[in-house]
């Protein structure tokens, strides 16, 4: 694996590096760093590496993981379920624990997992759970492999999708779960591309293959392989057709044996390298944080205390000015937002003008042939529902890239101003500003994942008692005419409603993406200011102790910097 060469060369020194970096971090007051270093060291000793199961919501990821470990340990359901990252690890018996936001762990009963990991029982993660760990005696996990169940993208529950994207940089390998029905969504492809930037170890599966005929499954597989190869600019290897539901029901099916073999090979040939590579990257991040903290402390101490106080006040003012400038752009962006809303609505009107006649023609083409009287209305509504959903989802997939391009153009001035603020701050030469990003990269698309999902308007689809009696008692031609009229009206309403929901989703993604873009810089400014304040506070203590104390502290910081720089793997 391309990313593992450095890890293999540096692995023997990593435990010592982590210990020394942790000690240095504690000396300069970097919060939580010793605990992070200890967690990395423990992970290295255990040879643990994380294979994240990622994909769109309702791809059957939780069911797939249950089938891989051979028992139903993860909650599953007919609605989006997973709300919190859930890690499956090897253990002598089934057990579970939860990690809270303060970093502490608490043991729970395995049967309580749903209370913390599911959207139903922990909506929007109101209980503040960082992760859930489940221990199972699965042979697949005995090598150190940990399977990670992630919240799906595209669900109405956006918080979980943000959690999944935040976890992407920590992925060592990925099990990418695709659906049996093409096309792939734009968000799904973007996720795969993002994951591929962090690891070459990708295993692709086409789940729920039992829902398609062999010919349709083969077509779906070939389509997905072609699209993925174009997006990643390289072959993606075989796309394995599986059915986790069939596997749980009893026995190997389709490509299941090949999936298990691929994961076993990954563990045997690359598991240790993946673990070492992950710990190596983590050690570098920790060392860089310590070096930045040392630089900030040293500069604050080396200057006269009154100068440090003045520089801190100037830094506060510069950060506040940058924040005010960003917020002053809000009215301008609001105008851009209104323009984007009009553009999205124009796209919607064009879609309806094209889609409604075609959808109605398709509805009539195969409506009600041979259906018994008692099923006429239900069958017509189901057909209309399927057509409307397919048209709406295809349109959303088609319009999303154009909407993202429009947003990128609209956000350009915001990014330019943000980068000018960064440049002014960096030109001050304060070491505390080393933690600021060099620049904010111009937006290429939405920062907020898709939340749109098609509604079925089930109450509208119901025949009602009067209509049901009329269909049952009227002559068949009259009954057919009534059902056709209801189905056509239902189809048109579904297309109008779902396209309006899609436009609303795009507009909300513009608002949230702009908010996140602004927040990115503001949070960085606040962190830098807090770091500088801590450095000045420590400098004040040393200056009060006298010149000898200042000189001794400077010498100590210089030595600490040299030590951490020499240790940085």
What would a concise description of this structure say?
This protein is of the alpha/beta class and 569 residues long. It contains 18 helices and nine strands.
Set out the fold topology:
Elements: H1 5-10, H2 14-27, H3 33-46, E1 49-54, H4 61-69, E2 86-90, E3 95-100, E4 105-108, H5 113-117, E5 129-136, E6 145-149, H6 158-167, E7 173-178, H7 186-196, E8 202-206, H8 214-232, E9 240-241, H9 244-250, H10 256-302, H11 305-328, H12 330-365, H13 376-410, H14 412-426, H15 458-461, H16 464-473, H17 476-545, H18 547-567
Parallel strand pairs: 1-6, 1-7, 2-5, 7-8, 8-9
Antiparallel strand pairs: 2-6, 3-4, 3-5
The helix/strand order is HHHEHEEEHEEHEHEHEHHHHHHHHHH
Percent strand equals: 5-15%
Helix content: 55-70%
User: Based on DSSP secondary structure assignment, what is the total number of beta strands?
Assistant: 9
The figure for the number of domains is 2
- What distance separates the N and C termini? 19 Å
């Amino acid at each position: 694996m391309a990313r593992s060469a450095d890890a293999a060369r540096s692995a023997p020194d990593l435990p010592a590096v982590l210990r020394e970096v942790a000690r240095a971090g504690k000396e300069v007051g970097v919060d939580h760093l010793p605990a992070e270093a200890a967690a990395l060291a423990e992970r290295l000793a255990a040879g643990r590496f994380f294979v994240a199961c990622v994909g769109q919501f309702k791809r059957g990821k939780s069911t797939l993981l249950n089938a891989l470990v051979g028992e139903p340990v993860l909650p599953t359901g007919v609605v989006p379920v997973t709300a919190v990252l859930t890690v499956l690890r090897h253990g002598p018996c089934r057990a579970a624990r939860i990690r809270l936001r303060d970093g502490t762990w608490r043991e729970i009963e395995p049967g309580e997992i749903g209370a913390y990991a599911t959207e139903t029982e922990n909506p929007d993660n109101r209980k503040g759970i960082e992760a859930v760990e489940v221990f199972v005696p699965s042979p697949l996990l005995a090598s150190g492999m940990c399977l990670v169940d992630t919240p799906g993208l595209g669900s109405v529950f956006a918080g979980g999708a943000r959690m999944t994207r935040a976890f992407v940089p920590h992925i060592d390998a990925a099990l990418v779960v695709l659906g049996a029905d093409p096309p792939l969504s734009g968000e799904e492809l973007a996720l795969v591309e993002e994951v591929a930037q962090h690891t070459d170890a990708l295993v692709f599966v086409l789940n729920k293959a039992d829902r398609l005929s062999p010919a349709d499954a083969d077509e779906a597989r070939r389509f997905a392989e072609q699209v993925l190869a174009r997006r990643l600019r390289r072959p993606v290897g075989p796309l394995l057709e599986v059915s986790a539901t069939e596997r749980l029901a009893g026995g190997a099916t389709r490509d299941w044996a090949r999936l298990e073999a691929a994961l076993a090979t990954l563990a045997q040939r690359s598991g240790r390298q993946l673990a070492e590579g992950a710990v190596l990257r983590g050690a570098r991040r920790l060392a860089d944080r310590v070096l930045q903290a040392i630089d900030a402390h040293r500069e604050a101490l080396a200057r006269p205390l009154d100068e440090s106080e003045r520089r801190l006040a100037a830094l506060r003012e510069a950060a506040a000015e940058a924040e005010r400038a960003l917020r002053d752009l809000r009215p301008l962006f609001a105008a851009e937002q209104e323009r984007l809303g009009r553009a999205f609505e124009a796209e919607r009107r064009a879609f309806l003008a094209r889609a409604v006649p075609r959808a109605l023609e398709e509805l009539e083409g195969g409506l009600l042939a041979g259906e018994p009287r008692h099923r006429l209305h239900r069958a017509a509504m189901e057909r209309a529902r399927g057509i409307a959903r397919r048209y709406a989802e295809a349109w959303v997939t088609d319009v999303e890239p154009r909407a993202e391009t429009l947003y990128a153009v609209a956000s350009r001035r915001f990014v330019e101003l943000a980068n000018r603020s960064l440049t002014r701050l960096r030109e001050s030469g304060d070491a505390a500003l080393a933690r600021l990003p060099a620049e904010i990269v111009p937006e290429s698309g939405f920062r907020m994942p898709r939340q749109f999902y098609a509604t079925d308007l089930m109450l509208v689809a119901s025949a009602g008692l009067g209509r049901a009696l009329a269909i049952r008692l009227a002559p068949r031609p009259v009954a057919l005419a009534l059902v056709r009229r209801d189905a056509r009206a239902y189809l048109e309403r579904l297309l109008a409603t779902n396209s309006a929901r899609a436009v609303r989703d795009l507009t909300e993604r513009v608002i949230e993406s702009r908010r996140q873009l602004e927040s990115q810089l503001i949070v960085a400014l606040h962190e830098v200011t807090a770091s500088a304040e801590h450095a000045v506070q420590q400098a004040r203590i040393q200056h009060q102790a006298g010149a000898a104390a200042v000189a001794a502290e400077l010498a100590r910081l210089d030595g600490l910097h040299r030590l951490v720089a020499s240790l940085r793997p």
